[in-house]
Amino acid sequence: MEIAKEIEVNKYAQNVIDIEDLIVVFNSFDLNEKKKYLNDLLFFILQSKAKDEDIEPAIEQSKLRKTYTPCVLIQKGVATHNLKRLLELPENELNKSLILLLNLFKIAYQKRFETEKVDTYKWWYWDLSDNKNIELILKNYK
């Protein structure tokens, strides 16, 4: 995932931008780009150490019906093989997968945010509402 898109995902986790901003970008992708984006998002979820206990709050925050396929699948647990099944759904289900996975990421991310934000080596926990931090991140990743 491009650094600018990584920043946007982490901004969402910090409540700096709305989920709609990410959905608009996601919907501009072709099918392969959507699947790559979701796969990268899975990596962020695993890095954030999401737990099975985060699933129900993620479904609630997503405002998706529990009967939607992505919600049914994720209830089996956050193990990688379960999450990857969300990427194998038909294209018309991928927006639901995106919304659900973004909410799962946000929950796991916020649990770690307070302890990790002091780590100068982990830019994704910096204050991403500060444009100076964004400029520094982009400068270091050119």
Salient structural properties:
mainly alpha; 8 helices; 142 residues; single chain; globular
Short recap of the structure:
By secondary structure, the protein is mainly α. The protein contains eight helices and no strands.
- What is the number of strand segments? 0
Distance between the termini: 14 Å
Low-confidence stretches: none
Helix proportion of residues, in percent? 55-70%
Shape: globular
Q: What's the SSE pattern? A: HHHHHHHH
The helix/strand class is mainly alpha
H/I helix tally:
8
Could you characterize what this model shows?
The longest helix has 26 residues, at 91-116. The chain is mainly alpha-helical and 142 residues long. The protein has helices spanning 3-13, 19-27, 31-47, 55-62, 69-74, 80-84, 91-116, 131-140. The mean pLDDT is 94.
List the topology elements.
Elements: H1 3-13, H2 19-27, H3 31-47, H4 55-62, H5 69-74, H6 80-84, H7 91-116, H8 131-140
